[in-house]
Amino acid sequence: MKALLDAFNERQRQIDSEGWKPEHDDTHTDGELAAAASTYAWSACVQVTGHALPKTPPAVWPFEKAWWKPATDPRRNLVKAAALILAEIERLDRARGAPAQTAQIVEWRPIEEAEKYGDGCLLHAPNLIHPDFNPKGVVDGYWQDDEGWIGAIWCAQHDCWHEMVIHPTHFMPKPDSPTSQSASESEA
Question: What top-level branch of life does the organism fall under (predicted)?
């Protein structure tokens, strides 16, 4: 799962830091993004087989030579390739008129950043780690703001009748539910 998140994060970095927004990607209609991805995947292949990368990009590199920036780490090159493949898939979907779907990246964040009201979230609570029942200490939790005897605390549903107080260190927003279209696409 980390590899997938790394690819999503690299794709977002390309948009935010490099300025390669969807409108720009849509101008590359001759397979340039896929070709660029292939050069980064090729770079990783060269590196893992113990060979040195050439100073110039491969012949299929579709852009100016100055834009070819392979990393010294083969994994990093594969992450770049994956992000470019995502960009090309998104471009193809837009060209076909597929409805836009924003990828939602969910990752663990410090509990101090959590919204204390809403639909709940996943919580990491070290006090709930148990080698047999909950080795990762992850629960579906929510903020309980009770002015009564309990006070404002993080809670998790222990069973259908009981809540338990937890002491989370991190949270992760719950991802959006898949749309009916994406569910039907996955069945195809």
Answer: Bacteria
